[in-house]
From TrEMBL:
<dbReference type="InterPro" id="IPR036249">
    <property type="entry name" value="Thioredoxin-like_sf"/>
</dbReference>
<feature type="domain" description="GST N-terminal">
    <location>
        <begin position="1"/>
        <end position="87"/>
    </location>
</feature>
<dbReference type="Pfam" id="PF02798">
    <property type="entry name" value="GST_N"/>
</dbReference>
<dbReference type="InterPro" id="IPR036282">
    <property type="entry name" value="Glutathione-S-Trfase_C_sf"/>
</dbReference>
<dbReference type="InterPro" id="IPR010987">
    <property type="entry name" value="Glutathione-S-Trfase_C-like"/>
</dbReference>
<dbReference type="Pfam" id="PF00043">
    <property type="entry name" value="GST_C"/>
</dbReference>
<protein>
    <submittedName>
        <fullName>Thiol:disulfide oxidoreductase</fullName>
    </submittedName>
</protein>
<comment type="similarity">
    <text>Belongs to the GST superfamily.</text>
</comment>
<dbReference type="InterPro" id="IPR040079">
    <property type="entry name" value="Glutathione_S-Trfase"/>
</dbReference>
<dbReference type="InterPro" id="IPR004045">
    <property type="entry name" value="Glutathione_S-Trfase_N"/>
</dbReference>
<dbReference type="InterPro" id="IPR004046">
    <property type="entry name" value="GST_C"/>
</dbReference>
<feature type="domain" description="GST C-terminal">
    <location>
        <begin position="90"/>
        <end position="213"/>
    </location>
</feature>
Length: 240
């Protein structure tokens, strides 16, 4: 059983996509980031960076104590290795998958996230910031489009955690001021993933949890106004 600490954001969707694809048993524990639940001490003991998603594997390979994990890329890699699914076994296939997983974690996700912030959520429109992040998102779409020109999936012939990591960040393409018709190979890949039954199930689970905007006037300070001095410090687990 996997306990998934989750809210339906791009990074949250990554984990439900994986879990639905593999059939691994899991339960969702909602963490309403709009209400500041990511700063609760019990969550911070699992995810010290106060970000979703996080998991606790209640039945790790080899037995022993449950394994907590935060960071969506690390979770995808852990689950892929646990199940032996959605990551190639051969050296070169694994290397291809990991480099594109890290590309998403270090590039597409952060840059698209800044795009979302300055285009949609910033209290004032800053033209330089908007142009900077819209253009960088566009460049990254171009990188992915070129990559997909001669292969069906990001890491090659088979669907993998590299695809799962990238797809949720392409879903809000219109809000990122990107047009999929400008990227035909990416558009073909995107449509194929959207049509997977596991993708439909994963997004349906998210809709069961929340359909309201994550960012509103009440949540803006919670989501964007934190510093080291305002975030909670997790307490150590009680001795057993």
């Amino acid at each position: 059983m996997i306990d998934l600490y989750y809210w339906p954001t791009p990074n949250g969707h990554k984990i439900t996509l994986f879990l639905e694809e593999t059939g691994l048993e899991y339960r969702i524990i909602p963490v309403n980031i709009s209400a500041g639940e990511q700063f609760r001490p019990e969550f911070l003991r699992i995810a010290p960076n106060n970000r979703i998603p996080a998991i606790v594997d209640q039945a790790p390979a080899g037995g022993g104590a449950p394994v907590p994990l935060f960071e969506s890329g690390a979770i995808l890699l852990y689950l892929a290795e646990k199940t032996g699914q959605l990551i190639p076994n051969d050296l070169r296939g694994r290397a291809e998958t990991l480099q594109w997983l890290f590309w998403q974690m270090g590039g597409l996700g952060p840059m698209a996230g800044q795009n979302h912030h300055f285009v949609r959520y910033a209290p004032e429109q800053i033209p330089y910031a908007i142009t900077r992040y819209v253009n960088e998102t566009n460049r990254l779409y171009g990188v992915l489009n070129r990559r997909l020109a001669d292969r069906p999936y990001v890491a090659g012939e088979t669907y993998s955690i590299a695809d799962i990591a990238a797809y949720p960040w392409i879903v809000p393409h219109a809000a990122q001021q990107q047009k999929l018709e400008d990227f035909p190979h990416l558009a073909r890949w995107f449509a194929a993933i959207a049509d997977r039954p596991a993708t439909r199930r994963a997004y349906a689970r998210g809709a069961e949890i929340n359909t309201a905007p994550t960012v509103n006037e009440q949540s803006r300070a919670i989501l964007f106004g934190q510093t080291a001095g305002t975030t909670a410090t997790p307490q150590p687990p009680a001795a057993s």
